[in-house]
Amino acid sequence: MSTTTTEVVGGQKVRRTKRRVEPIYYLFLLPSLILFTLAITIPGIIGIFFSFTDSIGIGDWSFIGLTNYVAAFSDPAILQSYLFTFGFSIATVLVVNAIAFMLAVGLVSRIRFKTGLRTIFVIPMVISGIIIAYVFNFLFSNSLPALGTALGIEALETSLLANPDLAWVAIVAVTAWQAIPGTLLIYIAGLLSVPGDVYEAADIDGATKFQQLTRITVPLVAGYVVINIILGFKGFLNAYDIIVGLTNGGPGTATRSVAMTIIAGFNGGDYAYQMANATIFFVVAILISILQLSLTRGRNAF
Amino acid sequence: MSTQALPTTKAPARPLKVKMERVNWSGTIILILCAVTVLLPLYVTISMAFKTTSQAVDGNAFSFPSPISVDGFVEAWNLTKFPVGAGVSLFVTAGTVVLTIFLAAFASYAIIRNWDRRLFRWSFFYLLAAMFIPFPVVALPQIQLTGRFGLDNPVGVVLLATMFQLSFSVLLFTAFLRSIPLELEESARVDGATTWQTFWKLIFPLLAPMSATVGIFAFLYAWNDFMMPSLIISDPALQTLPVRQNLFQNQFSNNYNVSFASYLMAMAPAIVAYLFTQRWVMEGVTQGAVKG
């Protein structure tokens, strides 16, 4: 900023407190600022700009005001993608947190093979979502129907992925399989932050293990639960890779997420229309982030 | 085995010590069963990969390969042009990790040391804003722009991936830098070190644990991501390993041994790297999520 003017105006006293910024600091900061602006800010502004036009991505365009937004709010395909994405995210967040919490409680208790088990549970985190989705795709299409036939369970005899009403279950399962490790590690950190003497005191007072869990552990790690639920929910809203690998949005458009709808617009010539959708999605993401900041009071932003 | 610090180890009292040594066997067994659900898909991947094509088509995922065959690997290697894919993936990952660490560390240092300056303070919040912007929101204009400026290739992916990692990384670095006492730096300055020398010789080495955390997140993202490279890289010959796997969804879809061999080759490097560095990965991920 304009250091020289401040010095002249402020005189002696300001000069001492407000030192000149060494030029090298600008060199440190500017590459990030410039690249960030070019890579994210400008595309964001361009996208919002074109959401008010009838552009198909190339060639001529003209302003059409809010037409895209009005159309998006009454478009069953877009509404369904939001409904699916939110339903899927809520279901996944609940499954992931319930399982991860229980695993974490188990992993910090006095079990054997603690290190080995922890190593195994974290493996899914390092595997590519699309590849694991392909592996599960095979299991859901071949192994599960075979198992269903063998056990005589009618619902499982056909592939889960081909069933418009149940394909989301498979997506939740695979997403959870991959998302549990990250959540689990945060819960382990939370559980280890509870001082051990609290439990010793509870033991002496004759509290059962279950009482200790519900009356001590759960309240003391409540902050971690909030963090995990919000982080997870935000991540799942962007679901793309695993759905592409499992159902590719099918059967029909039953499992098409918002991200997939937006991307599909690029090939379908709905560029401006899907940019309006993306802008709506952006507003949704901001609303959730505000909720996050107010719930965690800015303590954790991730 | 259980060398990890138990939450109760600090209690020296005798009766408690006896109690601590009592192993929770039922818990151990339940957790081992849970671990099986993690390992089962991996077992299927490995066993399918080593089958012959004729055994693989029977669709029995859990059978053991007999005879053990590496034909799948040979064919997958050639079909996906594995060396090229691995090279591109390696380039994208290394580029993203290095660029993220350096850009974020430089920017964070400048921001923290000039926090009293509006430009630097605002830059911090400006860079942080990207955490609220999911990639799909800006994907379409980015595809267009990278195409127009000749960045519809792995270099473009490195730049974009780095920018999406930047917010979170700056947040981690600045939190860590605030905890480094200023006196440390002042003593170096008294000895006549320039800002550059202070950063390079003193601060950057001190940042190493955070750099590891930032690098691990960048690695996991860049190595495994499908969405961004599949949309940004226009030339299929320059695609990353994860994107190359969609080859088996369209063509060759019945040669399960080939596709699984290919999946295995694509996921193995990250798993092996993880097994060797697991302590750091676990600590890094925990730190990254809990701090900030």
Task: Write up this protein.
- The complex is a heterodimer of chains A (302) and B (292).
- Chain A has helices at residues 3-17, 23-50, 67-73, 76-108, 114-122, 129-151, 167-192, 196-204, 209-220, 222-237, 241-246, 258-268, 271-296.
- With 302 residues, chain A is mainly alpha-helical.
- Chain A has one domain: MetI-like (MetI-like fold, Orthogonal Bundle).
- Chain B contains 15 helices and no strands.
- The model of chain B is unreliable at 1-18 (pLDDT under 50).
- The longest helix of chain B is centred in the C-terminal third of the chain and has 35 residues, at 256-290.
- In chain B, helix 5 (82-113) packs parallel to helix 8 (154-178).
- The interface between A and B is large, with 102 and 118 residues.
The radius of gyration over CA of chain B amounts to 24 Å
Number of domains of chain B: 2
Mean pLDDT score of chain A: 86
The number of distinct β-strands of chain A equals: 0
Residue share in β-strands of chain B = under 5%
Topology of this protein?
The complex is a heterodimer of chains A (302) and B (292).
Chain A lengths: L2 H15 L5 H28 L16 H7 L2 H33 L5 H9 L6 H23 L15 H26 L3 H9 L4 H12 L1 H16 L3 H6 L11 H11 L2 H26 L6
Chain B lengths: L13 H7 L4 H25 L3 H4 L14 H9 L2 H32 L4 H11 L6 H14 L5 H25 L3 H9 L4 H12 L1 H17 L2 H6 L8 H4 L2 H4 L5 H35 L2
Helix pairs in contact in B: 2-15, 4-15, 5-6, 5-8, 5-11, 8-11, 11-15
